[in-house]
Amino acid sequence: MSGKSNNTQLITTAIAAATTGAILTYTALKYKSSKNTSTTPPPPPPTEQDVKTSYIYEDPAHDVIISQPLKRTSSDLNQGQAGDGRLNAVEGAGRTILFPHSHEEKMKRRIASRVAVEEDNMTPRNSVTVRVPATSANFGPGYDCIGMAVDLWSEVTIERSSTFQITAEGEGADAMPTDESNLLVTGVKAAFDAAKKPVPILKYHVVSRIPYARGLGSSSAAIVAGIIAGLVLAGHRLPCWGSEALLQIAASIEGHPDNVAPAIYGGIQIGIHNGTRWVTERAPCPAGMQLVMFIPDFIGKTSSARNVLGPEISREDAAFNISRAAWLIHALCMGNLDNLKVSVQDKMHQPQRGKALYPYLFPMIEAAEDAGACCGYLSGAGPTVMALTSGASGDIFTQREKERTDKAVAKAMMSTAKKFGIQGRIVVTQASHEGARVLKADPPFSSDIFTYRDEV
């Protein structure tokens, strides 16, 4: 009886001790929580500066741990932006990750990380020489939006002077305006306007290797060369990533981006106006592709070529061109030159211009394709006919001719020209992956510490 009583007493004592311990533990935790709450303010929401990531720069000082995704507003989502100003970012996992295609956001962060700009960047120059390529616009169905840089170059030298003067040599030198109506002057003025500086008295000299008024972008080359030269002379630089300011100036003068975009950036460019600004992206240029051009001796005026086009097109013709433009870009992306023949077909401008202005156009394209060309089309507004061939590898003068078709295509195009009584010449070249660039400047950009290409 006594043992049973002792067991009961022990159980009661254990329960009481456990209860007391639980109460003490709860009280201690509650006290600690209330103390932390009263003494430690809540962390502020992360700012744009706080969330700067070291993903690009590997800068530990700017690393930040994000435990929860930052909120986005409906307006941010409509604009394709995150509420904290980051584009195309994955949030969480301890840091912000930028996708490979987030080029403009990466550049925004690079600019923000630089607290100073070298004074040399703002130095006005006394003279500058700019090299700019020819371009072939439209590429068949890509009316006013697709263009390609061509490996034919003009050089423009502009220097400060006491008297205004324009001199020229080479292609179209006799027809080139020597007053302020010259598009070189227009480009220079636009550059100085952007720099908010008065235009000084300048002397211009042009070494032209781009055929004048032949559908190879001579006007756009003058505009782009003038803008670039003007910016260098003024000591002014423009933002590119996120705004493409140089493209905005050039396209606003030209009215469309299909020539000026490849003249600036090189390669094959697809340009549009997105409702806010002009934008352009590069399409791949297939390896081994050559350009065989028949360049007539007569000039073609863009205004006359546009006047033969009707103000409207049918739904059927619109669908035709949309499908061909999509097929063209796919062929370029896949490097499938065999698909170019169908890709460059068009119903918006080539049939109308061929009928009214260039009766040799389609017979010449057919002859080129029969001789082995991948395709043929009217370059720009004409009168040049462009044929594309395949098979080039390295320096073509060390390659067996039977591996290529450029010579056979050239002969076929010239034979067609003779049948129509058209005088002209054949030029064989390739696309240029490079756009306009500065060749020489005074004072130079190079220094004793480092040297730019060609010691510019």
UniProtKB/TrEMBL annotation:
- What subcellular locations does the record give? Plastid, Chloroplast
Specify whether Transmembrane helix is a keyword of the entry: no
List, alphabetically, the SUPFAM superfamilies matched.
GHMP Kinase, C-terminal domain (SSF55060), Ribosomal protein S5 domain 2-like (SSF54211)
Pfam families listed in its UniProt record: GHMP_kinases_C, GHMP_kinases_N
Q: In which pathway does it act?
A: Amino-acid biosynthesis; L-threonine biosynthesis; L-threonine from L-aspartate: step 4/5
Top enzyme class of this protein? transferase
Question: GO cellular component terms?
Answer: chloroplast
- The residues covered by the GHMP kinase N-terminal domain are 188-267
Look up the EC number in the record and give it: 2.7.1.39
Coiled-coil portions: none
Q: Name one GO biological process term.
A: threonine biosynthetic process
Entry keyword set? Amino-acid biosynthesis, ATP-binding, Kinase, Nucleotide-binding, Threonine biosynthesis, Transferase
GHMP kinase C-terminal domain: which residues? 331-390
Known catalysed reaction(s)? L-homoserine + ATP = O-phospho-L-homoserine + ADP + H(+)
Q: Does the keyword Kinase apply?
A: yes
Concerning NCBIfam families, the annotation shows: thrB
Return the similarity comment.
Belongs to the GHMP kinase family. Homoserine kinase subfamily.
Q: What is this protein called?
A: Homoserine kinase
Organism of origin is Ditylum brightwellii
